[in-house]
Amino acid sequence: MTGGAEIPGAREELRRRGERLFAEFAALLEALAPGRAPVAELPEHPDLTALGDPRTFAYYRQVALDPPPNGPGLLERAESLLAGWRLARDRSDSGAVVLYAQRDASKLRLHFHPVRGLTLCRADTESMALHEPALETAQLPQYSEK
Fold it and tell me: pLDDT tens across 57-72, in order?
């Protein structure tokens, strides 16, 4: 069951947002790994992100860089390329610095391993409902005090 009627224009809007994000994601990867950036194109169909009513969908892609780019200042270069995004850093259990970037509801995540360099990147659009809820709000029985 996919839910109720399709929300007019929702699928096209999600695709438009995905195309914009993935174009920026591909350009970022190419800037950080010139000539050896992995393919980071928009998938044909969005992924299911929540099974609620209505279900929500988003585009996301995770890519591994092999061989990973490495070198002094790579993390700082990524941060400068992401000017205009809200940035945060965290450290993973493996010791990698994870750079989180968010603009509007789009998100990027880049993993910088201390020895190997930039190893993993992910891009996510926001989740959106493509259909109206399938179920009408249930009417609860009315109880009277007696």
Answer: 999 999 999 889 998 8
For residue 93, what are the contacts with CB-CB under 8 A and spacing of at least 6? none
Peptide bond into 54 cis (omega under 30): yes
Is the model's pLDDT at 20 over the cut of 90? Answer: yes
Q: Which pLDDT score, from 0 to 100, does residue 143 have?
A: 56
Query: Does the pLDDT value for residue 138 go beyond 90?
Result: no
Q: What angle do CA 22, 110, 102 make, to 5 degrees?
A: 60
Give the C-alpha separation, 32 to 86, whole Å. Answer: 19
Q: Which pTM does this prediction carry?
A: 0.83
pLDDT of residue 137: 47
3-state helix/strand/coil string of the chain: CCCCCECCCHHHHHHHHHHHHHHHHHHHHHHHCCCCCCCCCCCCCCEEEECCCCCEEECEEEEECCCCCCCCCHHHHHHHHCCCCEEEEEECCCCCEEEEEEECCEEEEEEEECCCEEEEEEEECCCEECECCCCCCCCCCCCCCC
